[in-house]
Every structure is written in structure tokens, then in C-alpha cells.
């Protein structure tokens, strides 16, 4: 059994989404043109899900980490109050370490230092 996800038509779907079958976590790599993702399980079944119904785990955080910048963004719009931010793997406190400032933006109350890593979990907006 290959550890690469494949669509039912045999096309390698690695660049679309990766599924960790032990934890059932999804890593979204790209969407189809109509904003859907293809999800493949370990026996090759394919499901199409709207991006609005996904939970993003370990999502990308965009912004310059230079010890001064405090404005950051995630890749997709999130539902209010669902954003969880991690600094170097440690969960931050909403209101004490960061605040949500827009549909995909947030403000770090203390700027991350050069070399720090930011990740985020959130529910995508409907």
C-alpha cells in the first residue's frame, strides 16, 4: 500500500491534500478551481469537501518574523473565535498573546523574534 493519496482515477493527489490516517488530520496543499478539496482515505475512496467545512490544523501563518512585526494572517478566512495560534509549538492565549483582527488576520501582542515559528488551527468560514 502506497503512503501517497490517490484519486479513484489513479491520479496522484499528494499536491491536493495529505491525510494522516493515524490522527485523521488533513494537511491542505491546494484546492480545486471551485474551492473544493479532494480527500482520499487509505483504501482509495475519494470524497470532495468544500473548503468552508474544513478544520485547518498546523496551518500556515503569513507575515514577517523580525522581532518588530505584529501583524499576521492565515491562508483562509476563519470563523470568529476559532483561531488558535502556536509559537514554537506552544499554544498561545487569546487576548493575552494575540487578538483576532479580521477574517484571516490577527495581531500578536508581543512580536515574535527572528527564528520563531508560528502555526495556527482554525475552522474555515462558511
Topology, pairings included?
Elements: E1 17-20, E2 25-28, E3 36-40, E4 46-50, E5 55-59, E6 61-62, E7 71-74, E8 84-87, E9 90-91, E10 98-100, E11 105-108, E12 118-123
Antiparallel strand pairs: 1-2, 3-4, 5-12, 6-7, 7-11, 8-9, 8-12, 10-11
Would you write up a description of this structure?
By secondary structure, the chain is an all-beta fold. The chain is built from no helices and twelve strands. The chain has two domains: 1-53, no CATH class; 56-123, no CATH class. The protein has strands at residues 17-20, 25-28, 36-40, 46-50, 55-59, 61-62, 71-74, 84-87, 90-91, 98-100, 105-108, 118-123. A hairpin with a 4-residue loop joins strand 1 (17-20) and strand 2 (25-28). The model is unreliable at 1-16 (pLDDT under 50).
What share of the residues does DSSP label as strand, in percent? 35-45%
Radius of gyration: 16 Å
Please outline the major beta sheet. 4 strands, antiparallel
| Helicity level | under 10%
Distance between the termini: 35 Å
Instruction: Give the beta-strand count.
Output: 12
Work out the count of structural domains: 2
Average pLDDT confidence is 77
Along the chain, the helix and strand elements come as EEEEEEEEEEEE
For the biggest β-sheet, the strand order reads 5-12-8-9
Output the number of helix runs.
Answer: 0
Structural class: mainly beta
Low-confidence stretches: 1-16
Apparent shape: elongated
Amino acid at each position: 500500500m502506497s503512503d501517497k493519496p490517490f484519486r479513484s482515477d489513479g491520479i496522484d493527489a499528494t499536491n491536493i491534500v495529505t491525510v494522516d490516517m493515524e490522527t485523521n488530520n488533513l494537511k491542505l496543499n491546494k484546492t480545486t478551481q471551485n474551492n473544493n478539496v479532494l480527500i482520499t482515505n487509505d483504501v482509495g475512496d475519494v470524497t470532495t469537501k468544500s473548503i468552508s467545512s474544513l478544520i485547518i490544523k498546523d496551518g500556515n501563518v503569513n507575515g514577517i518574523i523580525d522581532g518588530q512585526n505584529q501583524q499576521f494572517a492565515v491562508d483562509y478566512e476563519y470563523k470568529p473565535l476559532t483561531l488558535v495560534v502556536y509559537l514554537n509549538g506552544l499554544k498561545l492565549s487569546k487576548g493575552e498573546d494575540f487578538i483576532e483582527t479580521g477574517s484571516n488576520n490577527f495581531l500578536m501582542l508581543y512580536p515574535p523574534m527572528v527564528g520563531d515559528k508560528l502555526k495556527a488551527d482554525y475552522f474555515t468560514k462558511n
